[in-house]
Design a protein that fits this description.
This protein is of the alpha/beta class. About 30% of the residues lie in helices and about 30% in strands. The strands form two sheets. The chain has a four-stranded mixed β-sheet. It has a four-stranded antiparallel β-sheet with strand order 6-5-8-7, with helices on one face.
Length: about 220
């Protein structure tokens, strides 16, 4: 058995940064961690309910959510790939989202500020690419076509390599198996190589599929 490690945690402090920036005493660390999870889930649920319908893409288009906590402020930055899925320009939508998150967090002494940042090339981020592939699988597209289409979308960005792995009852077969494809270089053992990674769960009528995507962005 190989010794596996998360590519993002493996590169923390070199090419990857934390998605949460805050400090807490050891006894309060679990409370802060659960608070981060509530904030992220609340934002994703709100975007899922209030997004605009787009043909061919059923995801929410969020690449990542960064949370910065201070004594009297919680700063949340949402990196979104398709702002037309969400009414970004209306301040009412952001204010409503802030109110929902404030109720979920139940923080009286801290203000909440939410900012939305647009991503120029969304398909260069594994989370958005995984959502696209999930929508393809739910539309009964063959897994080979979905993988090749995902690689074509990634080639339009400035990435140097991509690896996609799918595990489970692929195409409804009775026996579960693992299929993978790679295009370009993906040096997983090189720490200075900046690699984006995501693990995504796809729920289909035949069962659950596990999807993993590695994208080699650049080398420092």
């Amino acid at each position: 058995m190989g010794q596996k490690i998360n590519p993002l945690g493996f590169r923390l402090g070199t090419t990857q940064n934390h998605h949460s920036f805050w400090f807490a005493q050891p006894k309060n660390f679990s409370v802060g961690l659960q608070e981060d999870e509530k904030i992220r889930n609340c934002i994703k649920n709100y975007v899922q309910k209030n997004k605009r319908i787009s043909p061919g893409f059923e995801g929410i288009g969020i690449a990542r959510i960064e949370i910065q906590k201070r004594i009297d402020l919680i700063q949340v930055i949402i990196y979104i790939g398709f702002p037309n899925l969400l009414i970004e320009g209306q301040t009412r939508g952001i204010e409503e989202l802030q109110m929902n998150v404030q109720k979920e967090v139940r923080s009286v002494n801290r203000r909440l500020n939410i900012a939305i940042t647009r991503i120029e090339k969304p398909y260069g981020h594994p989370n958005i690419l995984a959502e696209y592939m999930a929508s393809q699988f739910k539309n009964r597209v063959s897994f080979r076509k979905a993988m090749k289409r995902a690689i074509e979308l990634t080639e339009q960005t400035d990435t140097k390599g991509i690896q996609i792995q799918i595990a489970g009852r692929i195409d409804g077969k009775e026996i579960a198996r693992v299929e993978w494809i790679r295009e370009g270089r993906v040096p997983l053992q090189t720490i200075r190589a900046k690699i984006d990674y995501c693990s995504y769960t796809i729920r289909t009528i035949h069962g659950v599929l596990g999807l993993k995507i590695w994208i080699f962005v650049d080398e420092e």
